[in-house]
Here is the input.
Amino acid sequence: MTTTPIEGARTRIESGPHIPGVLTVEQVHRTGRAITAMQENSGALPWFPGGQTDAWDHIESAMALSATGFLAEAEAAYAWSARMQRPDGSWPIKVVDGQIVDPGIDSNFCAYLAVGVWHHYLITGDRGFLDRMWSTVWSAVNLVGRFQRPDGAFRWGADHRTHAMFDEALITGNASIYQALGCGVAIADELGQPEPAWQQARAVLGAALRETPEIFEPPSDHSMDWYYPVLGGAVRGRAGEALIAQRWDEFVVPGLGARCVDHRPWVTGAETSELALALEALGDTAAATALVSSIQHLRDPDGSYWTGLVYDDGKRWPVEKSCWTSAAVVLAADAISRATPGNGIFRDVRPPDGKPGQVSS
Here is the structure.
């Protein structure tokens, strides 16, 4: 009997993402199942049941479903993305129960589909899926290309009605777009439809992130602006290690996780897991493991994760178990255990010249 790509993927991930001494295969699989329980009938993956869906967090959650073997549910999520894409290639910033609440365009939100589609293909090997999603990816990445400024940075968003762009270039969004462009290029090459303009846009953006960080909005007090140039792949090697070291003490609370905001006593599971992914991409698996271990106080018995903890009073806040927090934990576990064929989706991102990136202090 011939094995289909999806059946083959299920066989490959039987061992599943895990972290020895922290999370078993069964526990991570339970987290994947908890994500499926939040999925709407439409395929949308909202922040939490009844909450908003945005195109970026929706894809991150879909990636966790792929990694934990819930392939049909993941493909339902990608089908939602294809249906919800607007003629210009964008998605609304916020959708609640199928209704558009914020019609604006976020360039990073739109770009991230390419990461998810490439990740799902790496896991399944399903060329049919890649073919089906190509037009959606192509439209999205081409739309995002219109947001690039002459200096290489990408504007963060636009008014969907007028298409007037907002000129600010945000560090986190640009670092994520860098990764997405790389995945878009990989998809195009795999399908024999190369897009050299995407590769060029990525090269210019990477150089900007490494060499002229001053063209972006100043780093905020949010931890994402700190570690995302490493997570997205533009800054790696010694430069990446130096970048992480710069603000480690501001954000990392030993034994509890990473703060979302540098001056608040609030650790969050998603940011901690993403920081772990960045560290794993730099080769520091031990530190990545310690970070994921430190947030297991956020784990619920059903396998899902609470968004965060205000540690000076011991209260969970916000009082919600967010889909994307659970997803970030799954993706970190997969990267650390190298369990699925998609485990290197963050680690294997490299600058176009293949050399470690440089970062200004």
In short: Residues 158 and 165 are 4 Å apart (CA to CA).
